[in-house]
Design a protein that fits this description.
With 347 residues, the protein is of the alpha/beta class. Helix content is 34%, strand content 18%. It has a 10-stranded mixed sheet, with helices on one face. A two-stranded parallel sheet has the order 1-2.
């Protein structure tokens, strides 16, 4: 039976120091390796150039160093960059770099596929293969940050967990990845620049509150009454809107972090003024600072279409007139299937 090598990234710094002492090496080697793993974002032992060739060989013999590989990269006419990453076990995920004048945002995936089957989402039509490990999520962000620096000469300013998968169904790995991303010996990004988006799992939203996380939360609401939401988001059948309202209030009470409501407009489904009234009632029950009204992006075999500009304007103006802080989020990267709801390993 072949022994499975331990992932080098599973060591914390004290553990690495202990290992190097055990093989007769100086303790400072641990810090060198740790920096390569989390600050310099090496993807192989060979890249650790301040270690001797013999030591790199020994590490390679004793530990695994699984890393994502960029399979393909596509550039949108609007500057958006979509990358397909291959995992060490041969699966594909997608991540997106979204540049704007004031910020460069990474939209990252947390699962390979998704199990929630939301009717408007291409990823929801894929089978969920597995959760991403925390270091795979970190790896994804590090590569997108490198792309941002190389293409736009600036680092990532924001991260949104709005790619493939439901982050709260990969709870431990997502939180551990964010912990590394925000650590001073990691990417040192402010947690206030990170938003985790969920389709709405009430007990896990409460768990975020209990864990006193420091990042922001977005709820993919997309319908403002249970009957409609049941139809387009099956997760609603076990997580009704009233339960989500309670959970979001609990989250805010415990963390005081920003909450955003996401609402994709679907023609003839959720775009009437009656729908807007239902949305206003929810908005007033939650300490949310913003409703993002999102353009629907067509997917293959999709049954929905987006409303015309007049309907969208009427809907959003009605919200604004009723003192709702609302913003229309225009889609980016549609021409390369990189927009909201389109990630499905096509291209």
């Amino acid at each position: 039976m072949i022994a499975v090598k331990r992932n080098i990234r599973d060591f914390d710094l004290p553990g690495l120091k202990e290992y190097f002492e055990s093989i007769g090496e100086k303790k400072f080697r641990a810090m060198q390796v740790y920096e390569w793993l989390w600050k310099k974002n090496a993807l192989t032992f060979d890249e650790m150039s301040n270690l001797s060739k013999e030591l790199r060989q020994k590490l390679s013999e004793n530990f695994s160093f699984p890393a994502l590989k960029v399979s393909t990269t596509q550039f949108s006419s609007d500057g958006t960059v979509k990358s397909r990453f291959e995992t060490p076990d041969g699966h594909m995920i997608e991540g997106v770099l979204i540049p704007t004048e004031h910020r460069n945002t990474a939209c990252v995936s947390s699962q390979i596929g998704c199990s929630l089957t939301c009717a408007f989402c291409a990823t929801g039509k894929m089978e969920r293969k597995r959760n991403l490990e925390y270091d795979e999520i970190y790896n994804q962000v590090a590569i997108l940050n490198h792309q941002s620096e190389k293409t736009y000469n600036k680092k990532l300013s924001n991260i949104v967990f709005m790619g493939m998968g439901e982050p709260l169904l990969n709870y431990k790995s997502v939180l551990k990845a964010i912990d590394r991303i925000t650590a001073t010996d990691g990417m040192a990004m402010s947690p206030k620049r990170i938003t985790v988006s969920t389709a709405g799992i009430a007990k896990m939203i409460k768990q975020l509150g209990d864990d006193k996380v420091r990042f922001n939360l977005a709820l993919s609401l997309h319908a403002a009454d249970d009957k409609k939401r049941d139809q387009i988001m099956p997760i609603n059948e076990s997580n009704k809107i009233a339960a989500l309202i309670e959970a979001l209030n609990y989250f805010y009470e415990k963390t005081k972090n920003d909450i955003t409501l996401e609402y994709i407009l679907l023609k003839g489904i959720n775009d009437t003024l009656e729908d807007a009234d239902h949305l206003i009632k929810i908005y007033r029950q939650i300490p949310t600072h913003l409703i993002n009204v999102i353009e629907y992006n067509s997917i293959s075999d999709g049954i929905f279409t987006k409303p015309d500009e007049e309907t969208t304007s009427t809907f959003t103006n009605y919200l604004a007139k009723h003192r709702v802080n609302v913003r229309v989020r225009r889609s980016r990267g549609k021409d390369i299937d990189a927009a909201c709801g389109q990630l499905a390993n096509k291209g």
